[in-house]
Amino acid sequence: MKDSSGLPPLCAQVMIYPALQMVDFSLPSYQQNQYVPVLFRTRMIFFYLQYLNGDMSLGEDVLSGHHLPVEIKTNYRRWIKADLIPSEFQVADHKPNLVLTHEEDVYDLVKPSLEPTFSPLLASDAAIGRLPPAYILTCEFDVLRDDGLLFKRRLEDNGVPVTSYHVQDGFHGIISFFDNGYLTFPSGKQAVDSIVSFLKDV
Asked: CA–CA separation, 115 vs 46, rounded Å?
């Protein structure tokens, strides 16, 4: 998302079950798949915090939604909420995060996570519209599924061509099992073939 003047323009972006925001960990995929291997919801927060500042003491506040002021969360709901994902991925028993308070000291520490270089889903429409054609792989049994679906919508809304492939019986890390002996999953091979096909057409 940063200015890359002087560098060759990107031809494409390939996103394989991408992690794109640290605002809301109560999206349907986070609730449905919070205990699904290999990426639990709490583990995803661990990875985010490791990348952000390494402070694992913030985990509970981030998980509960006390890491951001309500006005910040409300502002980003134009891009991050369950109603924006396709209807086939919405669930009747989804419980949105309705926390109205936050911890100011925690917010100060996680504020850099709102930068588009950390959370591309929060980039401006102008920045999104300058991105190259995209490929997005999502898996049904993955906490990150809805991040990918929401980013697909943002790209399309801003005129960026998107090729998407959803692995209906897939889980996070599925492409690592496309040729892995007795742990081989046919859907992993199909996902890899889809990525290769996209890259051949770039």
From this structure: 19
